[in-house]
Amino acid sequence: QVNGERLWRTLEEMAQFGATPRGGVTRLTLSEEDRLARDRLRGWAQEAGFHCEVDRLGNMFIRRPGRNGALAPVMTGSHGDSQPLGGRYDGIYGVLAGLEALRTLNDLDIETERDLLLVNWTNEEGARFAPAMLASGVWTGVFSEAFALSREDKDGVTLGSALQSIGYRGEKPAEAFAVHACFEAHIEQGPLLEAEAIDIGVVHAAAGQRWYEVDIQGFAAHAGTTPMTHRRDALCGFAELALAVEQIGFDFAPDGRATIGMAQVTPNSRNVVPGAVFCSVEFRHPQQEALVKMEAALEAAVEKLAERLLEVKLRRIFDYAPVLFDAGCIARVEQAVNALGYSHTRMVSGAGHDACYVNRVAPTSMIFIPCVKGISHNEEEAISPTWSEHGANVLLNALVSAAQD
Amino acid sequence: QVNGERLWRTLEEMAQFGATPRGGVTRLTLSEEDRLARDRLRGWAQEAGFHCEVDRLGNMFIRRPGRNGALAPVMTGSHGDSQPLGGRYDGIYGVLAGLEALRTLNDLDIETERDLLLVNWTNEEGARFAPAMLASGVWTGVFSEAFALSREDKDGVTLGSALQSIGYRGEKPAEAFAVHACFEAHIEQGPLLEAEAIDIGVVHAAAGQRWYEVDIQGFAAHAGTTPMTHRRDALCGFAELALAVEQIGFDFAPDGRATIGMAQVTPNSRNVVPGAVFCSVEFRHPQQEALVKMEAALEAAVEKLAERLLEVKLRRIFDYAPVLFDAGCIARVEQAVNALGYSHTRMVSGAGHDACYVNRVAPTSMIFIPCVKGISHNEEEAISPTWSEHGANVLLNALVSAAQD
Ligand SMILES: NC(=O)NCCC(=O)O
Ligand SMILES: NC(=O)NCCC(=O)O
Question: Using the beta-carbon criterion (under 8 Å), do A83 and B284 form an inter-chain contact?
Answer without folding.
Answer: no
